[in-house]
């Protein structure tokens, strides 16, 4: 199985260990993983700001880098959803369509494609799961609490069996952290207040770590935690899973 590793800009620039953990985890699971060195931004920031018509070159470059793989895997729900919904090409639409159908967020890929059922290992900490909006509502990685339906969480499924890891049940499981990409720049005060509210829920449950599938959301929360001099730490789910034995 040939997998193209798609790493978001902020992970590449600020949290390279998340990209490395994702790469190593996929290799441990038997995937043939390649990191295209010429990959750049997928165009999501421009699209979110109302300039999707200027993302053509981003699409062209993405298709050039990720054509030919069985799957494209990304440790980010928001970037995955952008590619899945917005990658198009006037000249190479069949290739764009193939990528749209085979691009997966990391935990989605582990549960739905690789069918990972059991995680064996230890992470002896109390952990709160932040389910990002794009992953939950766009990719359906977890059930929305306002729906009268059976609850599920793909990232939660991967964490629940880990020895010593206490996955707490938050009061508001799917509340937005306030990051929202360019929203945190244009509406800074609202964004920060939403982040503070999200952290209070984790503090109420006395977590030691906040984890999730989107480092962008965790980066936002990490900044607030540091300014509040909180002992709570953030960690991407790939960094937890990569330390473990996966079956």
Which SSEs are present, and which pair or pack?
Blueprint (H helix, E strand, L loop, with lengths): L1 E4 L3 H6 L1 H13 L3 E3 L9 H5 L7 H11 L4 E4 L2 H10 L6 H10 E3 H8 L5 E2 L5 E5 L2 H6 L15 H6 L6 E2 L15 H4 L1 H17 L4 E4 L2 H13 L5 E4 H5 L3 E2 L1
Parallel strand pairs: 1-2, 1-3, 3-4, 6-7, 6-8, 8-9
Antiparallel strand pairs: 5-10
Helix pairs in contact: 5-6, 11-12
GO molecular function: oxidoreductase activity
GO cellular component, one term: cytosol
Pfam families: CCG (PF02754)
What's the structural domain tally?
2
Which geometry do the CA atoms define? globular
> What is the CATH class name of the largest domain?
Alpha Beta
Which series of helices and strands comes N to C?
Answer: EHHEHHEHHEHEEHHEHHEHEHE
In CATH, the topology of the largest domain is named: Rossmann fold
CATH architecture of the largest domain: 3-Layer(aba) Sandwich
Global structural class: alpha/beta
* Proportion of residues in helical segments: 40-55%
First-to-last CA distance: 17 Å
What's the alpha carbon Rg, rounded to whole Å? 18 Å
């Amino acid at each position: 199985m040939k997998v193209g590793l798609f790493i978001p800009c902020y992970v590449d620039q600020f949290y390279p260990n998340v990209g490395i953990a994702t790469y190593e985890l996929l290799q441990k699971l038997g995937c043939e993983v390649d990191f295209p060195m010429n990959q750049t931004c997928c165009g999501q920031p421009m699209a979110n700001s109302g300039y999707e018509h200027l993302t053509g070159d981003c699409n062209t470059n993405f298709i050039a880098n990720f054509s030919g793989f069985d799957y494209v895997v990304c440790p980010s729900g928001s970037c995955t959803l952008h590619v899945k919904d917005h990658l198009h090409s006037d000249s190479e639409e069949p290739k764009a369509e193939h990528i749209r159908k085979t691009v997966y967020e990391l935990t989605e890929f582990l549960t739905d494609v690789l069918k990972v059922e059991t995680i064996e290992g230890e992470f002896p900490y109390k952990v709160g799961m932040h389910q990002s909006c794009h992953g939950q509502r766009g990719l359906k990685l977890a059930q929305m609490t306002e729906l009268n339906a059976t609850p599920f969480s793909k990232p939660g499924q991967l964490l629940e069996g880990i020895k010593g890891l206490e996955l707490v049940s938050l009061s508001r499981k799917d509340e937005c952290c306030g990051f929202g990409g360019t929203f945190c720049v244009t509406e800074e005060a609202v964004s920060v207040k939403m982040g503070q509210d999200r952290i209070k829920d984790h503090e109420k449950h006395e977590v030691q770590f906040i984890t999730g599938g989107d480092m962008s959301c965790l980066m936002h929360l990490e900044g607030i935690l540091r300014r509040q001099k909180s002992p709570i730490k953030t960690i991407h789910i790939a960094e937890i899973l990569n330390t473990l034995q996966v079956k």
